[in-house]
Design goal:
Length: about 325
């Protein structure tokens, strides 16, 4: 679940982190190298922390920011609620967040609860993203370091990546502003690995290919995102044939000559299957990416699988059902 950028920006406008604090509790700059060098990460938790809004005087000053390292950062699901609640609380006159003291006496001068300014919610959001970025780039550079001796160009690339801004949103032409999230330069770190690429990375690839088609003036070929075929599979499995399938009709009436899309598969013991629906829509369940191309002009369906395995029978049935 990504953080709500809209609520984050709204709360930032209402009560931004003061510069005197940001210079102490955030990285010294916005480059990948600054994130890697940042050492002020607090502990994180998946448990909901009992927090309330109020008007008590803030306990936090520029001279005691070290206490932040002892405070657990709430999980993302709670941070989204806090962003929304913080906006409402500010407009109703609240100025602080009441945080339960970890243990009696662990923070000198604080009894029961510790009062933090409302902008602490913004810091928690930023520190979540900084932590994820630091982990992603640490893994990426470990991967690149393993290649640098064999490929001299990788060492040069390594040096250049350190200077990139870590959280700049990518433009639409490079896959930014997708339906699932706003991609940043840190999204690119995941490519520097041999890990299973997530759905958002396939969305990025599709967006780049669509941009190339637009530049080339090719209008009758469309490349759909992974969610496209997943939604068709879902309707097939639920016998829902009332959907107005625009792309299917466009293929039928000739306004589209070809349609291509990635398909998430589950590979197991030399066979591939259409996976069951998972609870995490941010990344489709499965462990193997394949692709399908429907060429209406030739009346052909093409299937690409790096394992050279056949298209699963259920996928064939789904295509017949959708194209009927």
């Amino acid at each position: 679940m990504p953080l709500s950028k809209e609520d984050f920006n709204t709360l930032t406008t209402l009560c931004p982190i003061p510069q005197t604090f940001s210079e102490i509790i955030l990285p010294a700059g916005n480059s990948v190298n600054h994130v890697l060098q940042f050492t002020g990460l607090p502990p994180f938790t998946n448990e909901t922390i009992p927090l309330t809004f109020g008007n008590q005087a803030s306990f936090l000053t520029e001279h005691n920011t070290q206490i932040l390292r002892a405070m657990r950062v709430p999980p993302i699901r709670q941070l989204n609620d806090l962003l929304e609640g913080g906006i409402d609380a500010f407009r109703k006159g609240s100025s602080t967040v009441q945080y339960p003291s970890p243990t009696p006496g662990s923070v000198p001068g604080a009894v029961g609860h510790i009062s933090f300014p409302l902008w602490i919610i913004l810091w928690w959001c930023e520190i979540q993203e900084i932590s994820e970025a630091k982990s992603s780039w640490t893994d990426a550079f470990a991967f690149l370091d393993g290649l640098s001796q064999k490929y001299p160009l990788v060492q040069k690339l390594n040096t250049q990546i350190h200077t990139l801004p870590w959280n700049t949103e990518l433009p639409s032409a490079l896959g930014g502003n997708t339906m699932t999230s706003a991609m940043t330069t840190t999204t690119l770190a995941y490519y520097c690995s041999r890990k299973w690429l997530k759905t958002l990375h396939l969305e990025q690839m599709c967006a780049i290919l669509r941009q190339r088609l637009r530049v080339a003036g090719i209008e009758r070929v469309h490349i759909a995102d992974p969610e496209f075929f997943r939604s068709i599979i879902n309707k097939y499995r639920h016998a829902d044939d009332n959907e107005y399938f625009t792309n299917s009709l466009r293929l039928a009436d000739g306004s589209l000559s070809s349609l291509a899309f990635p398909v998430c598969m589950l590979s197991d013991h030399g066979k591939v299957f259409l996976p069951n629906e998972g609870s995490d829509s941010y990344s489709l369940p499965g462990n193997h990416w394949t692709s399908i191309v429907i060429d209406a002009s030739e009346g052909q369906v093409y299937y690409a699988d790096s394992f050279s395995l056949p298209l699963p029978a259920e996928a064939v049935d789904v295509l017949h059902w959708w194209l009927k």
